[in-house]
Design brief:
By secondary structure, the protein is of the alpha/beta class. The protein is built from 3 helices and 7 strands; from the N terminus they run βαββαβαβββ. It has a single domain, classed as Cytidine Deaminase, domain 2. A 7-stranded mixed barrel has the order 1-3-2-4-5-6-7. Strand 4, helix 3 and strand 5 form a beta-alpha-beta unit. The radius of gyration is 14 Å and the shape is globular. The two termini are about 15 Å apart. The model has no long low-confidence stretch (mean pLDDT about 95). The structure holds zinc ion.
């Protein structure tokens, strides 16, 4: 069972980005490393949300993904996942159907933050192959 470590500083940085883009969804990368069954996030990198309807979905430019993976190729750190926000009246950090349909890399962790005027809620997930050979997102612990 995998867990992800998000320090308060990292959470604050994601919170800040989500507020800045509100009511659009924000998105970005989680940078860090894996140790045993723990993903340790040490930094985040903001990405541009290029979705046509950024209020309801996020999409990262594929070139941004290639660039960031290249950048960390020869370092001890790597892209361990990505995050995006769900700006909603009701706090919701569960993956949408569209999120699940867009899983393209089973090694990347997903952090979803539900955000509204009252607060913020963080959840993390890992892709998991289903019996039907499609992906689902399985909730993992944030420590
Ligand atoms: Zn989503």
């Amino acid at each position: 069972m995998v867990s992800i470590k998000l320090s308060n500083q990292i959470k604050n940085n994601i919170h800040h980005h989500a507020l800045k883009e509100y009511p659009k969804e924000c998105c970005g990368f989680l940078i860090g490393y894996a140790k045993d069954n723990l993903l340790i996030c040490v930094d985040i990198k903001n990405a541009n949300n290029i979705a046509k309807n950024p209020q309801n979905f996020f999409e990262i430019n594929p070139q941004d993904i290639i660039n960031i993976q290249k950048k960390y190729r020869n370092t001890k750190l790597l892209v361990i996942g990505h995050y995006h926000s769900h700006p909603n009246m009701i706090l919701n950090s569960k993956p949408s159907k569209k999120d699940i349909d867009s899983i393209h890399d089973s090694n990347l962790c997903w952090v979803i933050v539900g955000i509204n005027n009252d607060g913020i809620e963080y959840s993390a997930y890992m892709p998991e192959l289903t019996k039907e050979n499609t992906y689902d997102l399985k909730k993992i612990n944030i420590i």
